[in-house]
Amino acid sequence: MTKVLVLYYSSYGHIEQMADAIAEGARAGGAEVDIRRVAETAPADVVKAAGFKADSAHPEIEGPDALAGYDAIVVGAPTRYGRMPSQMAAFWDTTGGLWMKGALVGKVGGAFTSTASQHGGQETTLFSIITNLLHHGMTIVGLDYGFQGQMGVDAVKGGTPYGASTIADGDGSRQPSQVELDGARYQGKRIAQTATKLA
After folding, report:
1. Residues 24, 185 contacting (CB under 8 angstroms)
2. What burial letters (b/e) apply to 168-193, b meaning 16+ CB within 10 Å?
3. DSSP for residue 163
4. How far apart are CA 113 and CA 54, in angstroms?
5. Cα–Cα distance between 106 and 141 in angstroms, integer?
6. Which of 192, 77, 169 is nearest to 126 (CA)?
């Protein structure tokens, strides 16, 4: 059975919700799915002052070598000034040994994100994640336009061809909408199906 890892970092829970939806879609695509988070690297006083979500239903990833055991890896992180946050970047900076061995070459990858505003750097953040995956030789699957929910301007909504996304508002009060979660499910399913075809 195809094995999919959903790897994420979430400050306020938005990306955690999207990770669960990606996983639902991947399971619907016939895959066995694990959800893991990367370690919080911000100082404890910053985490407390910013009100970061401290609890999670998902364990931390065991380390970079765990990536090699999956057929597909879907990476989610919020934006920090139009790029992935340092917590996720720090994890990928530890994957040099995997890169040297070509351990991820030929695997399927994807990305998802969250921003405070509609133009808050979703696409550049997705590319900052995707760049790492491409350097590892992975085949990227985005949120293609087969998912029509990302079309139109009738409501505030995330969704880009580069990956599923949500919009949290500046105070984090807006939660992922049904359309955004459906986009994540769609992308997760497509990633699982693609990984199965390439296996």
Report:
1. yes
2. beeebebebbebbbbbbbbbbbbbbb
3. B
4. 19
5. 12
6. 77
Question: Which residue in 10, 195, 9, 196 sits closest to 110, CA to CA?
Answer: 195
pLDDT in tens, 103-157: 999 999 999 999 999 999 999 999 999 999 999 999 999 999 999 999 999 999 9
Show the beta-strand stretches assigned E in the chain.
Answer: 3-8, 32-37, 72-78, 108-115, 139-140, 164-167
The residue type at 56: S
Task: Phi first, then psi: give them for residue 164, nearest 5 degrees.
Answer: -65, 150
Model pTM score: 0.97
Contact (CB, 8 A) for 163 and 187 = yes
Phi/psi for 82 (5° steps) reads 80, 20
